[in-house]
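Schema walkthrough. Field components (list of strings):
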Amino acid sequence: MKLLEQRIKKDGKVLSNQVLKVDSFLNHQVDPQLMMEIGKEFSKRFADEGITKIVTIESSGIAPAVMTGLYMNVPVVFARKRKSLTLSEGLLTASVHSFTKNVTNEISVSQNYLNKEDKVLIIDDFLANGQAALGLIHIVQQSGAQVAGIGIVIEKSFQDGAEMLEKLGYRVESLARISSLENGKVTFKGQKAEELVS
Amino acid sequence: MKLLEQRIKKDGKVLSNQVLKVDSFLNHQVDPQLMMEIGKEFSKRFADEGITKIVTIESSGIAPAVMTGLYMNVPVVFARKRKSLTLSEGLLTASVHSFTKNVTNEISVSQNYLNKEDKVLIIDDFLANGQAALGLIHIVQQSGAQVAGIGIVIEKSFQDGAEMLEKLGYRVESLARISSLENGKVTFKGQKAEELVS
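Field assembly_structure (string):
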């Protein structure tokens, strides 16, 4: 998605070979017009999947997911991060390990909002090693619903999440695919290295 | 806002005289079409305030805030809840006490995304005793920006938040104002008690 790649080049900050900061338009400050374009694009890419529900994870997944839900005319459920598994009655839960923060969060969705007839589109802001997506898949599976696809705003293709999910048989659509953050530069998959305009 | 009141009556669950659960359309499962109507309504009510930025708090404020930002064509910043004030460099922070959960959270916004020229609309899903709104006001004030108004999806008017904020001189616009949850019934301000259709 050209508009998103341009925005990443313009406003993204490469903090290391692993970390791209996009908190000026995606995960702290949010650009609603860009979110709308992102929602439109996901809706187009997954138009033929018969999606009945979108599942994402708080907090940064919510804005792109709700815009996608608007275009697809389906409800959005956001999984909550919880400290523990106490009070888990009626909840579908999964553990998600974050390698960057080195913490394991429990995530949960009320069983009221997923059922076995649902065809679910999972949306998230970033895909790195795929642990968050796996957690959401695990939750959807517990409900008996089907994961019809995974929509990612920014994929760090140099980490193994996308390949792992595709090997498991899932359709992954990422709107920006970053092949490298080396030397402080964002390089998109299939493109030559370009300098990051900061 | 009639549409919202109808939805609360249809899908809200009164758990006690103090607690209304709306997680089927607002704060766990989200109805994107309703969020769009909410955004349109806030945008209309605050059209003359010269708003340059919307500030909300994760996670349930994000959906209505982003839709409002879409209609007003301004960026949205969501405050993050943090466990501690370590690593607070470059952050505007405030403490928010939750009486229902009996915990105090630190909330924070990067100082990069608020400046003294901003006219800020604060958006949140619920207003009860007003502690979250006060925390957001405190953060906006630290940046030198002006709070131009406070937009609330559901106000529990039988708690003292709205009155307190208005006494401090803030314009508060709540799309649904609940005067009572007694006897398992939702009563809106200015209306007679009506049974909750569950």
